[in-house]
Amino acid sequence: MTDQFDWDTGALLDRSGPGRVLFTTRRYPIFYLQITKCGCTYVRNLLYYLDHDAMHPKAARIHAHDEDFVKADLIPREIIKGAPGLFAVIRDPVDRFLSLYFDKIANQQNQFDAGMRRRVSKAAGLDLEHDDLATHRENCLKTLAWFSRNLDTKNAGKPNPHWQRQSVRLARIEGLGARLLTLDGLSAQLAQTLGPVVPDFARKAAAVTTRNTSKKRFTKAEIMTPEIAETVRAIYEKDAALYQKISAEWAVTSTKEG
After folding, report:
1. Which of 30, 100, 132, 245 is buried most deeply by CB count within 10 Å?
2. Which sequence spans correspond to the domains of the chain?
3. Which of 71-80, 118-127, 217-226 has the lowest mean pLDDT?
4. Beta-carbon count within 10 A of 75 CB
5. Which residues partner with 89 through β-bridges?
6. SS3 for 12?
7. What is the greatest pairwise CA distance in the chain?
8. Which pLDDT does position 8 carry in this prediction?
9. With b meaning 16 or more CB within 10 Å and e meaning fewer, what string describes 193-223?
């Protein structure tokens, strides 16, 4: 579903553009590139709230309701490029991997992602019957080894967006000047980014309470080993470097404003 108009003039549009990968809203010139496991459940709920002044009736399963959202596929490139409301959210690759592993691969109670779990478990040779720390650590390494093969050689089919590199997704909007936010600083960074675009943004953002928080069997401190951390950063090298760069830039911004 797409609203076919120019944000500035209201004129109907008849051409496709780079906005086909961006979510937008009916009310505000916001353009969001979704990257899975990077706060997208909250952001999608926020976009819905901004258009409807109410929470989505299926907030926890909002990704199953694309029909309730607007894509910017007919918005011209010149309007999207450099727009104040153009953004994406990135995440520390280690945290992103652990969230994926515990939420969708190791969590056998999650029936929504049973197909993904079967695919990864079979291909990587995981042991999902035992729930001890050593088994989960071994599963993490096996999962990462298979992710690496799948990403670089397309072994066992097309990579799933949940483990695709963030940099690959960001390449879809290269040159448009999107502002990158970090998940761990999302609330404040969203306020700085969308506050000038959306009147009364703070109140509206606070009204959106739904987030996808994975229940981890072990904490990051408990499960993490140098080998797991190094493996994640080797596979997602560009993502790790970008996350460090953007985090440092936001830290400078926060210091100046503080």
Report:
1. 30
2. 18-92+164-206, 95-161+214-237
3. 71-80
4. 28
5. 181
6. strand
7. 60
8. 42
9. bbeebbeebeeebeebebebebebebeeeeb
